[in-house]
Write a structure and sequence with these properties.
Layout: E1 4-7, E2 10-13, H1 14-26, H2 36-39, H3 65-84, H4 97-104, H5 109-112, H6 120-128, H7 140-147, H8 163-180, H9 182-190, H10 199-211, E3 224-225
Antiparallel strand pairs: 1-2, 2-3
Helix pairs in contact: 1-10, 4-8, 7-10, 9-10
């Protein structure tokens, strides 16, 4: 029986995921965001600066770029405060309960004010580059995997949930996928060498491909839904 890899609500053969990641990180035709996003120099500092905000376009999150940029500039002071509060936490796979709460707090800036043209997708693409082992990437494909796949999706939308609360529930699910398959994610990450990527970025590459419903990568077409219970709780809600 072929070894399987689980991501969100789907499982796929490990060999298929390996083929997909290898093509993604080794195709230098200008089609993919690697290595552009991963090697973009940005500010080169531990904290966010204006230069870092342009990285969102390198993962194709470039709708209304001028409005997005100015919104993100306005969020910089609070985002840097929340990044600093993460302290020495380095890896999502090893984060404890208290650290998980802190990891979700940068997403809470979306709860504090209106953020024109900036949601969790663009925000995560800015944050991930500062803590690539700790802060996961998010987009509609990843949302599809965790919240929409199968007759019983892995996570549930709950009315009234804050963005920080949504982020915490989702981050816990990502952590579970990392912890239960550490060696597989380390191997997939090792396929990228120039530049190197984290296992969390490797998970994003696979999740993006699996969640692509319109034109999925040929390597991942054989993925199938997992039969697994919900991981969400009813104590948090989803924003109207």
């Amino acid at each position: 029986m072929n070894e399987m890899l689980t991501v969100g609500g789907l499982e796929v053969e490990m060999s298929a995921a390996e083929s997909w990641v290898a093509r993604y990180v080794r195709t230098n035709s200008g089609l993919w965001s690697y290595p552009a996003y991963d090697s973009y120099p940005g500010s080169g500092t531990p904290q966010l600066a204006e230069q870092d905000l342009l990285a969102v376009a390198l993962l194709n999150a470039h709708q209304k770029p001028i409005t997005s940029y100015y919104t993100l500039v306005g969020l910089l002071p609070e985002l840097n405060t929340r990044l600093t509060a993460l302290g020495t936490a380095h890896s999502l796979v090893d984060a404890d309960t208290d650290q998980l709460k802190n990891i979700a707090k940068p997403f809470g800036v979306l709860d504090d004010r209106k953020t024109p043209e900036v949601g969790l997708t663009k925000l995560s693409k800015v944050l991930h580059r500062k803590r690539p082992h700790l802060l996961p990437l998010y987009d509609r494909n990843i949302k599809h995997l965790d919240f929409q796949v199968g007759p019983t999706p892995r996570l549930s939308f709950v009315k009234g949930r804050s963005w920080e609360g949504y982020g915490k529930v989702w981050i816990e699910a990502v952590q579970q996928d990392l912890q239960s398959q550490r060696a597989k994610w380390r191997h997939l990450a090792s396929l990228a060498t120039d530049p190197a990527i984290s296992p969390l970025r490797a998970l994003d590459i696979v999740a993006w491909g699996l969640g692509e419903t319109r034109n999925p990568p040929k390597e991942l077409i054989g993925a199938r839904p997992m039969q697994r219970p919900h991981m969400t709780t009813n104590s948090l809600g989803w924003p109207a």
